[in-house]
Amino acid sequence: MLPADRAANRARLGTCGGRPPVFDRDACKQRDTVERRINKLKQWRGLATRYDKTATIHLAGLHLSAVFIWSAR
Fold first, then answer.
1. Based on the number of CB atoms within 10 Å of its own CB, is 10 exposed (0-12), middle (13-18) or buried (19 or more)?
2. Handedness of CA 21, 26, 27, 33 (dihedral sign)
3. H or E stretch at 6
């Protein structure tokens, strides 16, 4: 494909597909930070396996693990 064809195809697809036309370093940094925090939360066995029976208890475990992670910094 020619570069003009690729640009036209990306414009046609919009947000439905393809990669973004430019690389945004700040957005990538923020995505990486969020992904790392979520992975750290998933290391807690109760959160990763969802043994809790109710959403309230699961949310309490999430908050508790977040406090422990935050305080360990």
1. middle
2. positive
3. helix 3-13
pLDDT tens digits, residue range 5-63? 877 877 777 667 666 667 788 988 999 999 998 898 888 888 878 788 888 988 898 89
Q: Which residue type occupies 73?
A: R
What single string gives the DSSP state of each residue in 16-54?
GSS--SS--HHHHHHHHHHHHHHHHHHTSHHHHHT--SS
pTM of this structure: 0.55
| Amino acid letter, residue 56 | T
